[in-house]
Amino acid sequence: MLIAVGATSAVQIQGFTLTMLAPVCLLLAPALLLTRPSLGQWLPLALAVIGFAAFCVSAQINHLSLVDQRVQQWAAFALYFVGFLVLAGRDLLRIFSIYCGIAIGAAAYSILPGSASAGFYGSTADVWKYGVGQWVVIILLFCLVLLKVPLPLQALSLLLIAIFSLSADYRSLATNCALASVITLVGWLAANRVPRWAQLAFVAVSATTMYAIVPRLAADGLLSDAIKRKTEAQLAEGVPLILAGRTESPLSISAILDRPWFGWASANNISAEVFDRAKSLAISLGFDPAVPIESGWYFANGDVSLHSVLLGSWAEGGLFAALLPLGLVIAALAMVWNASRYGRWSVLVITVSLQAVWDLFFSPWSYGFLSGFAILAVVFAARHMPSQSHLDVKEVGR
């Protein structure tokens, strides 16, 4: 039943913000008044309200319609979040049943003719990269948990997905799946013998080393031709590794520095002077001045691209609009650190947390992201604030 509720997200109402899941959550929302939410459940809701108010102020200052989906995004988050709290509370099985349904709905939407992703499809690899990839991972891990597959085998499945994603030039998903797999295996092998900080420090050092080596292997053609071409193009542009191959970050940073408090409402409002300062910043960071980097700062339809949920929220809505995505990053990292609190769901929690951090920093808004971020906040609240010591022991594995 809950999977079917989540799957209503396959029907789009408004852009990336509202799906048919929204009216379902709207009908359920008043029931929250009959509950006693914890601090961990109130906090995301409060940040969403602050973010929505910030976007409203920015819209008024910059003459943007209040019904624009940029303005509505955190209000939609709050709606999904409250609906999911009413439906699932702190029960992980119920929470992830909804998430599985959302993944099914988002994957179904992405392969339908006329979807925003359909224009990118030229091969099966494109369907995986631009459409169903990260949603299939969620569905697969959910099924593996229900089938009681041991954690090491779940980690192995992530490694296989990482290899396939790398062959399909979906490097971010490959990286996140591989990292989640390693974190799971290190935690399983170390158990209680090695402190958590030492486990994650080992993973971080290994990941940093691989992050420096893999681009060179790709440029040498040891992976796939598609990855080789893309890596060579990024190396030629001089994109720093810390930016994960993205060229839009200097524009986002320059836009934020120019209007840090209330933003531009829409990236399309960013002035020509800010674009010039962004080019200078990019060159100072190591971008090749001979390469027209500004060509990557636009979508195909001519709209300005910031390609980051977090930086885009700050640039468009101002500092207070960025508090929620920043809070989600912190929540995701906390869940990776405290993955053991989630018992049999720990592999899925680690995977979606790492993917969320990547998407918040390096991805533009995409279909299904808002409801997915709302689920992330519900998962966080299920085992944090109050802390694990206040939870019923029976609740930890559910």
From TrEMBL:
Q: Where are the transmembrane segments?
A: 12-35, 42-61, 73-89, 96-112, 132-161, 173-191, 197-219, 319-340, 360-382
What keywords is this UniProt entry annotated with?
Answer: Membrane, Transmembrane, Transmembrane helix
Q: Signal peptide position in this chain?
A: none
What protein is this chain from?
O-Antigen ligase
